Amino acid sequence: MKNYRILAGFLCCAVMVVPDVQAALRVFACEPEWAALAEEIGGDAIQASSATHAMQDPHYIEARPSLIAGVRKADLVVCTGAQLEIGWLPMLLNKANNPAVLPGKEGFFEASAYVQRLEVPGSIDRAQGDVHPQGNPHIQINPHNIVLIATALGERISLLDPANVSVYSNRLQDFLQRWQRALQDWDSRAQALRGKRVVVYHKSWAYLQDWLGLVEVATLEPVPGVPPTASHLAGVLAQLEAQGGADFIIYSPYQSVKPGQWLADRTHIPLLMLPMTVGGSKQTGDLFGLFNEILDQLLGEK
Ligand SMILES: [Zn+2]
How many whole angstroms from 205 Cα to the centroid of ligand 1? Predict the structure, then answer.
């Protein structure tokens, strides 16, 4: 009986104390890389979650009720933008009824606004597939872009939570210093990859190609967003045979291995599954691990 009373007393006080604790800034990220970056900057002062995980294609997810609830409670929504999430984010924002995180407000952060976008089309022809009119949205896969986005995100988080500005600016400086050291290492390792020829499943790797100097010679999708077909793959095979092959075939964890495997079996070109984001494997537990893993695989050091 006595124990029960102690427990009841503890519960009573715990309940009374909790509302006085300064709540962490709630960050709803559309992709894992932005949740990871927010955590690097915010530490315990923020609470970050991601709508998608490493095994999902961020173009296509369902606007589930749990995600709507996440947006409703968020202080800050951090997404790639450039229409990557056009199939689901507008619905989440619409249903969440949280005006503070709508596009144009301080509570909405579009990462792609802070980098130079590649592949911005001169004109839009829907026959060319799922073309992004605002350029290629897969911006996270160049670590130099992360510097620009981290700096802007740090400013935005500080604006929304001025009480913790010193926490955010110290953590951001620490992150950027560690990132710059890692960048020097990555840039020097990457020299060996310059000019390598790649076949990619989807146009997910434009920023990686730009960073590493890789040359995209073919895509397994006939047009962006349309799954590989037998006739298109036969055409890619003929093209590779006529034009000197390629060094790698690259696909993402959420894409089918089969089309790349079909091509690899016939050409003996190494087939690599490269991570697009944080999570999904032990090595890619954070942003540093993501780029270590990509380079390890491309350099054959795994
Ligand atoms: Zn895409």
Answer: 9
Q: At 16, which amino acid appears?
A: M
CA of 301 to the centre of ligand 1 (A): 28
3-state helix, strand, coil in the chain (%, to 5): 50, 10, 40
| Separation of CA 203 and ligand 1 centre (Å) | 6
Amino acid at 235: G
Q: How far is the CA of 202 from the centre of ligand 1 (A)?
A: 7
Give the distance (Å) from ligand 1 centre to CA of residue 278: 17
CA of 59 to the centre of ligand 1 (A): 7
Look up residue 148 and give its two tokens. 């620009």
- Say how far apart CA 131 and CA 59 lie, in whole Å: 12
Tens of pLDDT along 106-123?
999 999 999 999 988 876
- SS3 of residue 25 by DSSP: strand
CA of 240 from ligand 1 middle (Å) equals 23
Q: What is the pLDDT of residues 78-113, one digit of tens each?
A: 999 999 999 999 999 999 999 999 999 999 999 999
User: CA 90, CA 279: separation in Å to the nearest integer?
Assistant: 25
Q: Across the strands, what pairs with 13?
A: none
Distance CA 80, CA 58 (A): 10
Q: What whole-number percentage of the chain has pLDDT above 70?
A: 90
